[in-house]
Amino acid sequence: VRRGKNLADAADKVQTLEHFVYSAVSSATKWSKGKYTRVYHFDSKAVVVDHIREKLPRLADKMSTLLVGLYATNWKFYPFTGPQKQPDGTYMVSLPADPNTPLPMIHTRKDTGYLVRALIQVPPGKNLLGFGSMISWNDYMKLWGEILGFPGSHYKQVDVETVAKLAPGDKDLGYEVAGGFAFMGEFGFDGGDPTVIHPQD
To answer: pLDDT tens digit string along 162-173?
Structure first.
């Protein structure tokens, strides 16, 4: 939070700044009405956006936010959330998210630049959900298996506790990651924020 606020405070002092694009996500605590309070990587970015809107009105007038969707490569950084080989040779992802809820997937190196460019070509004030495709976990695993030659690969919904316990060493990290997937599966990646627009908008 401190780093984000420092960045915003510094940007506010740049007199020649015309458009400020901030990478944000919705507050899981706010949009779940307090059900998910440990999704710190969501809530901390939302706190910075609130800081800008409440304390830095000049910067807020120049700001658009880009809600960067689920990184398609997240499972490489958090292997306990990725595909696990099963005895029959297929792979399975087990997370506490609804299997049929479409979620925004993004390839950050390929998609982010286009999204930021789109934002700076329109007036500030947009709240863009950034993604390359909207796909459910069921469809994701089916496609993943077909592309990599593991037909029959699938998704299984499990509870938060099950995933949290898989995190190596740091249980707080486990609950944060698991809670994030549960929040997205129940409320959507953006929590249902009515100000959010999609790339096709």
So the answer is: 999 888 877 788
**Considering only CA atoms, which of 44, 6, 8 is closest in space to residue 26?**
44
Number of Cβ within a 10 Å radius of residue 184: 27
User: Which residue in 19, 8, 15, 91 sits closest to 54, CA to CA?
Assistant: 8
The reported pTM is 0.91
For the sheet with 127-130, list strands across it: 20-24, 63-68, 127-130
Q: What is the DSSP letter of 80?
A: G
CA angle (190 as vertex; 5, 27 as ends), nearest 5: 40
Letter for the amino acid at 17? L
State the DSSP code for 81.
G
Tokens of 72: 């398609």
Predicted confidence (pLDDT) per residue in 66-116, tens digit: 999 999 888 888 888 999 999 999 999 999 999 999 999 999 999 999 999
